[in-house]
Amino acid sequence: QQQVKQSPQSLIVQKGGIPIINCAYENTAFDYFPWYQQFPGKGPALLIAIRPDVSEKKEGRFTISFNKSAKQFSLHIMDSQPGDSATYFCAASILSYNQGGKLIFGQGTELSVKP
Amino acid sequence: GAVVSQHPSWVICKSGTSVKIECRSLDFQATTMFWYRQFPKQSLMLMATSNEGSKATYEQGVEKDKFLINHASLTLSTLTVTSAHPEDSSFYICSARGGQANYGYTFGSGTRLTVV
Asked: What local confidence, expressed as pLDDT, does residue B1 receive?
């Protein structure tokens, strides 16, 4: 129940395309859903995050779509650029401290944006 | 913004020795810190959660005697890999959370441990 399932494992798009990465979860107690970008040899960096009280959030070229009833959320990257080539992770947690607040990660998606 | 500094960024050690990795929150008080391990081309696997002044809570399958975690202050947590073996070679990443006003998770830049 603590798992977060992410797909696809890898994705190749042309510059300007809109890659979409999907995640699904089981634990309905999760209340924080972030997306991270990770470059080789670096720690993950927060891109955007959403709480379950909204269905969509945009920050720059990144959009999260959230479907509470389906227990799914996705990341869309608009006008993708070669510099967006990285590994993307979705994650989920229960923010209240008495629940530990640990962040559970999806399996990751390796994105390659071709020039 | 919130910054977490992790040192060293890479370390090579001999089998049987111990290695300490430090994780510092530079501009906020980290009430909770998390330690992750990441193998190449894989996801981050949570090893343990620590709250300042308390014993760490380890995930199932993580040897608490091998991976010693100390969170003695609100700005510093350390992970010590004791009696390291080649199979402990991995990328170790820390993450910190502040008080309620800052519920996000800030990650360190990671430590590449190679045991030879």
From this structure: 72
Q: pLDDT of A1-34, one tens digit each?
A: 679 999 999 999 999 999 999 999 999 999 999 9
Distance CA A114, CA A112 (A): 6
CA dihedral sign, ordered A113, B4, B6, B9: positive
DSSP-assigned beta bridge partners for residue B76: B24, B73
Tens-digit pLDDT profile for residues A56-114: 999 999 999 999 999 999 999 999 999 999 999 999 998 775 556 889 999 999 999 99
A44-103 residues touching B, CB cutoff 8 A: 44-46, 49, 89, 93, 95, 97, 100-103
Residue A10 contacts B, CB cutoff 8 Å: no
Q: With an 8 Å Cβ cutoff, are A89 and B44 in contact? A: yes
- B69 near B82, Cβ under 8 Å? no
Q: Cβ distance A10 to A88 under 8 Å?
A: no
Q: Report d(CA A21, CA A10) in Å as an integer.
A: 9
SS (H, E, C) chain B: CCCEEEECCEEEECCCCCEEEEEEECCCCCCEEEEEEECCCCCEEEEEEEECCCCCEECCCCCCCCEEEEEEECCEEEEEECCCCHHHCEEEEEEEECCCCCCCEEECCCEEEEEC
**Whether residue B8 has a cis bond before it, omega within 30° of 0:** yes
